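Quarterly update, task 2.4: 1,6-di-O-phosphono-beta-D-fructofuranose-bound model.
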Amino acid sequence: MDHAADAHRTDLMTITRFVLNEQSKHPESRGDFTILLSHIVLGCKFVCSAVNKAGLAKLIGLAGETNVQGEEQKKLDVLSNEVFVKALVSSGRTSILVSEEDEEAIFVEPKLRGKYCVVFDPLDGSSNIDCGVSIGTIFGIYVVKDGEPSLKDVLQPGRKMVAAGYCMYGSFCTLVISTGTGVHGFTLDPSLGEFILTHPDIKIPKKGKIYSVNEGNAKNWDGPTAKYVQKCKYPEDGSSPKSLRYIGSMVADVHRTLLYGGIFLYPADKKSPNGKLRVLYEVFPMSFLLEQAGGQSFTGKERALDLVPTNIHERSPIFLGSYDDVEEIKALYAAEGKE
Ligand SMILES: O=P(O)(O)OC[C@H]1O[C@](O)(COP(=O)(O)O)[C@@H](O)[C@@H]1O
Ligand SMILES: [Mg+2]
Ligand SMILES: [Mg+2]
């Protein structure tokens, strides 16, 4: 799809108009989701602005340090967490929040409660903050069951999410979301302060030419991962080797995978048998988006969205990307099971 040409046809569709259009397809809807999303969008704009100023404002000092005015400086991930917690609580549409930055789930006080639970990584790619490389925010949304909210509302398989998305703070600011009817990408116009639909109905290429993994962990990989990466470099069918791209920010690596195709891996290894990435606010939202775009996501054992987490910061190995590329790694794990 020619996204540049499509951007013209979208007639300056802002994210607010887009979500209101979606809402009008559900006559029973009372606009709760639209309000929640507008608060998430506000959080993204706020963090985007802080990220853009970080190099100058010395926001990237260590948490607890003081700046020249004697004010306490906050690390960007601490600041981003505060921004999102405030934005989500003040929406009046959430009951439970799970953030990478908070050890415990946050239960919203009864008078501000609403029907959603939001799981999020307020700032993903922390190792890239200080050098100005793309970082992002990842979020997933569940509906809270009736009655007193409890951890059971969040410890659910990823397929139960009603929406997921991420915002990438890169050379421009991009917000990618899915409410279960395809994946749509918006780009922030800084002069308008509006996210404009630039990438409607994103579909990941069926097969890609890029693999993305931290190869520094290779000596500890299991057989199927090692075999897969070997095949990327030395294809047995005589085709060209895949290119390696690895930014080290999941948001940026997954965004490129979504647009260009290929595979992103954060596998298990001998040192980290559950991999590194967190199920609720990294693996699930990205898997939801990739499936909605026509790709796949696999843990080495099962479809990632079928996992049932038992604690809020649980980790899982992850292989996600183009349908055919993920099929190949699935076949290698299936073959290992038969050896
Ligand atoms: O440095 P490594 O081990 O390759 O890990 C990179 C991964 O770690 C992360 O930075 C973890 O996320 P946080 O920065 O939110 O902790 C991912 O964005 C990225 O995919
Ligand atoms: Mg992260
Ligand atoms: Mg983080």
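Highlight for this quarter: The pocket of 1,6-di-O-phosphono-beta-D-fructofuranose (ligand 1) is lined by residues 100, 121, 124-127, 214, 248-250, 266, 276 (CB under 6 Å).
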